[in-house]
Amino acid sequence: MSGCLSAGERRPSLRPKYGAPVGRRDEYRAVLRSRGVAHWPAYLREHSGLPGPRGNIELAQALADVGDRVCFDRFIATDDEYLVLCGVVGLGRLLAEGAGAEVEQRLRGHATDARWRVREAVAMALQRLGDADLPRLLDMVTDWSADRNALVQRAAVAGICEPRLLKTADAAASAIDLCVRVTHALAARNTDERRDTGVRALRQALGYCWSVAVAADPAYGLPRFRALADCTDRDVAWIVRENGKKARLANLL
Q1: What is the pLDDT of residues 152-208, one digit of tens each?
Q2: pTM as predicted
């Protein structure tokens, strides 16, 4: 997806389950540390998995583990999609280590990138922050969800709707409430806005993020998800149908 997908399309996956086997991230870290930083770009390109359908996320995460801010900045400054992806994931590590508003604003800017893989990297960066400082992530995605830009809202939803981050009732409730707010904001957009590629990408994300959030706390989430059925908006109806197809939610329903 370079921009967005139509309702019937599916983008190639960047999800880790399709990436390298368990343990490869450690191997990649070792390889990167054994090579000079100057040799990293060539190695990353060679093992990126692109232009195939599945980008090498384990390698990108390993690079984010061992790189530094100078490295991330250099990669982001290139026009190479995979190197930019790696650098953006690295920004998430900086946030997790306590970087401030300047890095957050940079990440927020990357959320609106025309390249879908870079936008996915933003979600992964946010999840890195969540692993280290979940309250800060919750505050951040709440703020981002109020942004008028649909792609920033998309990043907020995709960033928090990750099962490993929703282990507590408070975190799950926050994710569900965010899905409610962003879905209502989508329904409030006019017809012309709905044609925007960013809005379509947001709808696509809501088409699966609801199921992740509700599955984390069905008692809180199911009534709010079922309430969407009362909405006559066509995009909201599509979101309900798509989430209902997901096994994690279909079993609950």
Answers
A1: 999 999 999 999 999 999 999 999 999 999 999 999 999 999 999 999 999 999 999
A2: 0.89
> Virtual CA dihedral for 215, 12, 6, 239, nearest 10 degrees?
0
Distances in Å between the alpha carbon of 16 and those of 55, 57, 60, 121, 241?
9, 6, 10, 12, 25
Joined tokens for residue 68: 């530094």
CA angle 184, 164, 129 (to 5 degrees): 80
Domain boundaries, the chain: 1-132, 164-253
The CB density around residue 196, as the number of other CB atoms within 10 Å, is 16
Q: What is the DSSP letter of 4?
A: -
Report d(CA 228, CA 250) in Å as an integer. Answer: 15
Please say whether the beta carbons of 181 and 216 come within 8 A: no
